[in-house]
Amino acid sequence: MVQDEPGEVVAVGDASREKKPNFFRRIAIFIRQVFAELRKVVTPTRQELVKFTAVVLGFVIVMMALVYGLDLLFTLLTQYVFGTPGSATGS
């Protein structure tokens, strides 16, 4: 990297490039990184698990009620605009 102007960094084209490891080596590195990340995972306690589950279920119930309300509103609005099916006169 070369600094053209103050505060600006530009990559140099003739910088030495490192050779990529072969396919199997990259897979091994990936698997090692996966296990390293899995070691960082913290399992929630039972109390946290119950609390998170309650929050998710509460959110799902609220969203179901919202969708139900909108569906009911659009149904009533559609029936008002287009009329109720089967109530056409002159048949």
Task: Looking at this protein, list some descriptive labels.
91 residues, mainly alpha, two-stranded antiparallel ribbon, elongated
Describe the model.
This protein has two helices and two strands. With 91 residues, the protein is mainly alpha-helical. It has a domain of 40 residues. Strands 1-2 form a two-stranded antiparallel ribbon. β1 and β2 form a beta hairpin. The radius of gyration is 31 Å and the shape is elongated. The mean pLDDT is 85.
Query: Uncertain spans, ≥5 residues at pLDDT below 50?
Result: none
Helix-strand pattern, N to C? Answer: EEHH
Helix and strand content put the structural class at mainly alpha
> What is the strand content?
under 5%
Kindly state the mean pLDDT as a whole number?
85
What value does the Rg take, in angstroms?
31 Å
- Number of DSSP helices? 2
- What gross morphology would you assign? elongated
The main pleated sheet reads as: 2 strands, antiparallel
